[in-house]
Write a structure and sequence with these properties.
This protein is an alpha/beta fold and 521 residues long. The chain is 41% helix and 21% strand. It has 4 domains: 275 residues, Aldolase class I (TIM Barrel, Alpha-Beta Barrel); 31 residues, no CATH class; 60 residues; 116 residues, Alpha-isopropylmalate synthase LeuA, regulatory domain (Double Stranded RNA Binding Domain, 2-Layer Sandwich). 48% of the residues are buried. It binds 3-methyl-2-oxobutanoic acid (KIV) and zinc ion (ZN).
């Protein structure tokens, strides 16, 4: 029997981006949206337009680009939020308004201070209003998994009668377990008139590590849309991981009788893109996209694998976009080979960025014998438009002593071609280098966090540094990479300084990520 299709609703840019440390700039969000379209997700939840002007602009920019998938925006059950979503998503040919209201007793009493009937009235009003704008309306009873079953069925029935075309059941706090969630979905199937005429959806958080298992239980009980994020990013312990749930449905197709439209060979590149942008790298043993996901160390496993791969391998690395050999390019590789590899890794660079990336690649290939995929990704993070001027790092020199302050000198090239130099001392080489950068750029930063990730393998691997810094009470995140980790840290801080200077130049006072005026759910 042919498998039935199931929709993949990606909320990396909404629920994922809401997580601390995962905020993205507009340009980064556009890159992720394009990658999600290449991955062939059915719906992109691009943001929560009423949360802040920055969120509105980014949802609108994604919708206006119209990459292909349905573009959805989130709204609370009030006219202002709904109107904002409509204005933000209407540029996309296919668009959706997603309204939500909490339904559990805990939320009713302590957060909303609303009675059961008032909540139903608010949900019905919101769905009806959204339906006046669009035909595609999703409704979510927040904290559904902790809502009394009979009341949940009542709310869902009312939302369907009001015109909801998708009803999403969230396990907002990651509390449920698979058998219980299966019961909940079967209960709704049995008690909600008209439920078979709409798309039933599932949205799980991972607080007890069961987001994927709970989503699959819901699917087994009849859900036909899964809400998930790349690398499972999201608030607290995150959301259901897209790559895991998609590969579970694919690998066990005979069990579920379902198929997604996901281009699974784009899973790994998309995962790398999101981790490079957010600086949140999946652990090595993360299913599907972790570095060890397809590594077989134990002798007995290796022996079995050599006899027949299926002895210990239930998926092939190439099915998820991991190339067998990720040793890609060297000193003699040409521009074409470089550009093709960049594209395969899921990056879309314009001509200017490709030229700059290629120059950096050539420099790196002189410093480092083997250039791996991870090195190329790190180069791209350094050269993409967000790291362009007004200042480029031309030279860095540091001196450290075990019993003295470190000293650093930097030389920067400004947009006008002029060079500026400064030297400073500090507790360590990074602190000294950042102080020297501050003298040239005039942008003081307080370093809050410094995270180092190895971009590839070997002693000469590049270090990918993600810094979190503060400037005038705002928090910013920057990325930089180099075979020298102090230089990588310097590049990450300079990226932030450049961003602040560019915004100042355009007369915009506040940074986009994160925005303290942003409403939270
Ligand atoms: O977790 C949740 O309940 C949500 C809803 C807004 C769908 O993210
Ligand atoms: Zn959520």
């Amino acid at each position: 029997m042919a498998s039935e299709s199931i929709r993949i609703f990606d909320t990396t840019l909404r629920d994922g981006e809401q997580a601390p440390g995962c905020s993205m700039t507009l340009r980064e969000k556009l890159r992720v949206a394009r990658a999600l379209a290449d991955l062939n997700v059915d719906i992109i939840e691009a943001g929560f337009p009423a949360a802040s002007p920055g969120d509105f602009e980014s949802v609108k920019a994604i919708a206006d680009e119209d990459f292909g998938p349905v573009i959805c925006g989130l709204a609370r059950c009030n006219p202002e939020d709904i109107e904002k979503v409509y204005q933000a998503v209407r540029g996309a040919k296919r668009h959706r308004i997603h309204v939500f209201v909490a339904t559990s007793a805990i939320h009713r009493e302590h957060k909303l201070k609303m009675a059961k009937e008032e909540i139903i009235k608010s949900a019905v009003g919101a769905v009806k209003m959204a339906r006046e704008y669009v035909d595609d309306v999703e409704f979510s009873p927040e904290d559904a998994s902790r809502t009394e079953l009979a009341y949940l069925a009542e709310v869902v029935t009312a939302a369907i009668e009001a015109g909801a075309t998708t009803v999403n059941i969230p396990d907002t706090v990651g509390y449920t377990v698979p058998a219980e969630f299966d019961r909940l979905f079967r209960y709704l199937k049995d008690h909600v008139p008209g439920i078979d005429d709409i798309c039933l959806s599932v949205h799980c958080h991972n607080d007890l590590g069961m987001a994927v298992a709970n989503s699959l239980a819901a699917v087994h009980a009849g859900a036909r849309q899964i809400e998930c994020t790349i690398n499972g990013i999201g608030e607290r312990a995150g959301n259901c991981s897209l790559e895991e749930v998609v590969m579970a449905v694919k690998t066990r197709e005979e069990f579920f009788g379902l198929r997604t439209g996901i281009e699974t060979t784009r899973l790994y590149p998309t995962s790398r893109l999101v981790s490079s942008i957010t600086g949140m790298h999946p652990p090595r043993n993360k299913a599907i996209v972790g570095e060890n996901a397809f590594a077989h160390e134990a002798g007995i496993h290796q022996h079995g694998m050599l006899q027949h791969a299926s002895t210990y391998e239930i998926m092939r690395p190439e099915d998820v976009g991991i190339s067998k050999s990720n040793l890609v390019l060297g000193k003699h590789s040409g521009r074409h080979a470089f550009r093709d590899r960049v594209r395969e890794l899921g990056f879309e660079l314009d001509e200017f960025e490709t030229n700059r990336a290629f120059q950096e690649f050539k420099k790196l290939a002189d410093r480092k014998k083997d250039v791996y995929d991870g090195d190329i990704e790190a180069i791209i993070m350094n050269v993409d438009g967000t790291s362009s001027g007004p200042y480029q790092l031309a030279a860095l020199e540091v001196q450290t002593h075990t019993d003295q302050d470190a000293r650093a000198s930097v030389r920067l090239v400004a947009e006008d071609g002029g060079e500026r130099e400064a030297s400073a001392t500090g507790d360590g080489p990074v602190a000294a280098a950042v102080q020297a950068l501050e003298q040239v750029t005039g942008v003081p930063l307080t370093l809050v966090n410094f995270e180092l990730h190895s971009a590839s393998v070997g002693e000469d691997a590049q270090g990918e540094v993600t810094v979190t810094v503060e400037h005038e009470g705002q928090s910013y995140r920057g990325n930089g990479a180099s075979v020298d980790i102090v230089e990588a840290g310097c590049r990450a801080c300079l990226e932030v300084m450049n961003r602040i200077l560019r915004r100042r130049h355009r007369g915009i006072a506040a940074a986009v990520p994160p925005d303290p005026t942003r409403a939270t759910i």
